[in-house]
Structure prediction request, 223 residues.
Amino acid sequence: MIKVSYFARLRELTGKPGETIDRESMTVRELLDWAETAYPGFGKDTVHVAVNEEYALKEDIIQSGDICAFIPPVSGG
Amino acid sequence: MKPFEIVETPIEPQKYSDYVLHAGAGAVTVFTGHVREWTHGIRTLYLSYEAYIPMAEKKLAQIGAEMEAKWPGVKAAIAHRIGEMHISDIAVVIAVSSPHRKAAYEANEYAIERIKEVVPIWKKEIWEDGEEWIGGQKKYPEKGIE
Prediction:
């Protein structure tokens, strides 16, 4: 099971703060592809993924139990 | 207070300035970022900020460590507020002390630039006739974010 969180535009698009995906492992790229399919308009080319609160690369592997977050372009300050 | 924190109540800059001040400091710079009414001719009614709080606090602390590594002797504290904010409210405070003034100015500017790059905080502008999450359609950098 992989936990994912949505923020800002993505929270509004998906209509939820997060959910659990029933997978043992997947790459960050596969997770982004999954999100784009599940939620048209997700904009996977503009979204980063954080795994356990650190930015991950698209090749990185996510394991069951990891906490993931989709990070759309940040705009703090 | 924590030296690197996300807060939901009004920011009191003095607390962060006091935190970084010590006997070896010859300079303290305090930057406050405020809610602006007009952006490119569009009038903002209010802003709403959201954060991935645990990661945002970790990234603020990382920026503090970067500053201390780049400018030895610098001590920093940073707070960003989330939730609804109105015109002129303080959204962010960066306090930096250093033995001499140059490092305090430079490190302070470095901090705000890094916040805009890496800290998972999002701003929504609410106008009279609409609203939008700010951040644009930046492309995913293949090398990732550091």
Remarks:
- The interface with chain B takes residues 5, 7-9, 11-12, 43-48, 50, 53-58, 69, 71-77 of chain A (CB under 8 Å).
- Strands of chain A lie at 2-5, 18-21, 25-27, 48-51, 54-55, 61-63, 67-71.
- Chain A has a mean pLDDT of 97.
- Residues 9 and 57 of chain A are 21 Å apart (CA to CA).
